[in-house]
């Protein structure tokens, strides 16, 4: 199989993980990079030995010579850059959050579909080793049919030092982190029919909400809670672990801090270490996320090579992004929000 040639736009904080990931991916590599900030461009270009460098994405698309684009910029540029990819018929990966609004995200999916180009949202959390282990345990039937779940991310980690823009937005934890937790809830318990949410801002130095509690009704009849916080100090900081509790008709499952998975059913309790691998370029505590960056990018290369749809395609991720919109709507109105009305 021919090696796929990629171009990456946005050489910021998180893109360094994506560049490392691409070096490890089988069947794809990055041949061109772009950042409007010349310093970031030089830093990442030198670190990863990429000679084709652009400060203007339009120029990079005009020059071409790549099979896909990986858009690793922050949210406000996503629609413009995906539309450039559409204009040049270049398959695109776009970082989360998908877009500033659901209307933008829908327009991006429609444009990619009309142009016949694949679009994947870089929604990497479901690719984490512990989350995959939960999915496998559920698929094995070990706890029967799940009827209740909790997906929890509670931390006091200072995310603002690496990503200062997170302190400035009107929206914070649901849009930035809860989006991953909501996607995990969908991945594990299936699509959602309605939700209600409550939010709080505890840290006075930031603009958006840093605590959210969301109650979800799933199509399957299961109920779940997604609770996220960046205002929670604990004796051992769990960042960036998502903890999961599932109760099923035949047993229960607990993914607890320290990457331990316990499955309990009529045969007793089994504990398994489901810790992520520490890749050579990774560092704790980010290694869980870093491994999933590699995994989702390998998935993209495999799917693009075989012309298959990715599991976090634009169309799929609209259903996660709708939950983000619904959570903000519900927190403001205190009403339950029906998801299908948002997806129309
Ligand atoms: N999945 C995860 O675990 C995870 C973690 C952190 C960040 N992210 C996401 O990654 C994205 C990037 O976040 P970050 O923290 O790296 O941001 P950042 O600000 O550090 O980097 C963004 C880079 O994009 C460049 N840029 C912006 N618009 C551009 C344009 N139109 N053309 C060329 N370059 C442009 C900026 O100059 C900057 O260097 C965000 O959407 C964020 O939500 C994901």
Biggest sheet strand line-up: 14-13-12-11-7-10-9-8-15
Distinct small-molecule ligands in the complex: nicotinamide-adenine-dinucleotide
- What is the name of the CATH class of the largest domain? Alpha Beta
Reading the helices and strands in chain order gives EHEHEHEHEHEHEHEEEEEEEHHEH
Low-confidence runs of at least 5 consecutive residues: none
Number of strands: 15
Radius of gyration, whole Å: 20 Å
CATH topology name of the largest domain: Dihydrodipicolinate Reductase, domain 2
Protein name: Putative dehydrogenase
InterPro entries: Gfo/Idh/MocA-like_OxRdtase_N (IPR000683), Gfo/Idh/MocA_oxidoreduct (IPR051317), GFO_IDH_MocA-like_dom (IPR055170), NAD(P)-bd_dom_sf (IPR036291)
Domain GFO/IDH/MocA-like oxidoreductase: 131-254
Organism: Rhizobium giardinii
SSE diagram, text form:
Blueprint lengths: L3 E6 L5 H10 L3 E7 L3 H11 L3 E3 L2 H7 L4 E4 L6 H10 L4 E4 L6 H14 L3 E4 L6 H11 L6 E9 L18 H17 L2 E9 L10 E8 L4 E7 L13 E6 L2 E6 L3 E6 L2 E6 L13 H20 L7 H20 L3 E2 H5 L1
Parallel strand pairs: 1-2, 1-4, 2-3, 4-5, 5-6, 7-10
Antiparallel strand pairs: 7-11, 8-9, 8-15, 9-10, 11-12, 12-13, 13-14
Helix pairs in contact: 1-8, 4-5, 5-9, 7-9
The structure holds nicotinamide-adenine-dinucleotide (NAD).
